[in-house]
Structures are given as C-alpha cells and as structure tokens.
Design goal:
mainly alpha; 0% strand
Length: 62
Amino acid sequence: MKSFGAVAAVLAMLAVGTAGMVLGEADDSPGLQGLGALLVVGALALGVRAARRGTPEVGRGR
C-alpha cells in the first residue's frame, strides 16, 4: 500500500504543478509558473526515488 500512496502523491503534485504553470501563464505571473515548475520537478524526483526504492538493486545481494 505504500506504493499506492506514493503514486497518488506524485500524481497530485503533478496535477497541481501543471495547473500552476498553466494558470501562471494565463495571468502572466512568473512566480506562479516557477512554483508550478518546482512542483513538477519535485514530483518527478519523488517518483523516481520511490520507483528506485521499490525495486531491489542489482549486485546488492538482497
């Protein structure tokens, strides 16, 4: 169940970040676009981290 929570959190962050970028572009707000981009990048980093922790590493003997 931990992986379901991680996937849900990443998808929520991606949705909020994308909405922030779109709404920031419509309002010509560079700050909102920047925050949206940071959310998207952070969500991708957390997704990669969760995916790597969920699979055993090669050569570790686990």
